[in-house]
Input
Amino acid sequence: MKVRSLLVLGAQYGDEGKGKIVDLLVERAQVGTVVRFNGGANAGHTIVLEDGRFALHQVPSGILHPQVLNLIGAGVALDPIRLVDEIGELRRRGVDCQNLRISDRAHLVMPWHRVLDGHLGARLGTTSRGIGPCYEDRAARVGLRVGDLVDSRGRVDLEHFAERVREVGAWKNRLLTRVHGLDPLDLDQIVSECTEAAGTFAGQVADLCGVLEERAASGHPVLYEGAQGALLDVDWGTYPYVTSSSCSLGGCAVGLGMDPAPDLRLGVVKAYSTRVGEGPFPGELGDGARVRQHGALPPGTPLPQPDPALRQAALAGDEEAMGRWLRLAGAEFGTTTGRPRRTGWLDLVALRHALRISGLNALAITKLDVLDGIPTLRIVVGYEIRGRQTTSMPSRVRDLAEARPLYEELPGWSCLGAATCFEELPSQAQAYVRRLAELSGVPVRVLSIGSRRSQSLFLPEQD
Ligand code: GDP
Output
């Protein structure tokens, strides 16, 4: 795989399996640098190795490769306390994180952001990690940045940071108490917690513009890693049920401070669809409202498994059972929150929209194995909205909520097995993948048929 730079984006509602694909491509394309350019601790990227599962939130997915430099770009909303927890957990597991650098321009997620997100974010189904309020403050030009906490020589700047916290925090405390009727926050405690956290990573803070320029010239490809997915993009997603950052190619340029010019622009897409939280979801299987009411799985709880009765009900045409089956077979519970994900058939209208807004030129399809044993598969190929058929993504969520999906049906397969190349897949699975490439208009370059690195197939480049 010969490329100068690569972009890896979610082409659905997030949770497509980007972490695995990034980790895989790092090796395959001999990537020298991985950069995260948007989102924050609301992301959860999972990488499964022979010796265990790594859940990454703010740290880029190239961290497990010591020769790769991992950059947290200016477009990321960085939570210093959570970053230290994440670095600590990685260190406990033998990943030293010396290959991590953090942009001095990244905005800081402050405790008031988390409190406000928890208080106001439920309406949109946010993760309550404070990301939305942090980006709001960025746009309102009252945000604190990493450079307010750590000076240009990589030292924690207590005096400057305390001044900024007092200035912004006094106003935030008025907002919390007078507008929202909440308790005020202890600003001295915030200063002490954040500066203590910054002690762990201060030496790794830098102006990444120069670093990126050097890395891009080094001869090893740079990989730009997006968080969330195209349909959660603040401008192009299912607004207002979106995240607060740009999850598309445009967001990549903004979040880096350079022209990314990626020659491979890969959209990661699950072989079916999932969505967390609120928002319209054409092709959804079962009752999303009921799924949303289910509580999150407490940390450490073993994932529930599908049983034969559920399978039987799903195969008998019970849509709700099919939705549950996909959720259980695909382990569709949030990496960050443990929340159950809503499930549905793959939506080609939405996928084509995702490809268009970022000029994506290739696909990685994940979780093909989860469809094992479903005799007939469906793909959404159009919507009917109040009697009118369309293949375009409507901008109004109300229209999308009313959209009746138009399906194409394809035969399923019984088991993908341990295929080592595309030709070893069952013919129906090959046909499914070919049809997705045909309908989306871009080639499929990677197929993932299990969570492990070894369960991946690379397809040859096509003209
Ligand atoms: P991300 O945020 O896009 O990186 O996605 P997540 O990490 O939230 O979710 C992807 C989940 O699917 C992780 O638990 C992965 O280990 C798992 N996964 C990735 N690819 C595959 C696959 O092809 N098959 C199966 N069964 N699981 C996969």
Remarks:
- Residues 284-344 form one domain.
- The chain is about 35% helix and 20% strand.
- Residues 10, 15-20, 44-46, 48, 331, 335, 366-367, 369-370, 448-451 surround guanosine-5'-diphosphate (CB under 6 Å).
- The mean pLDDT is 92.
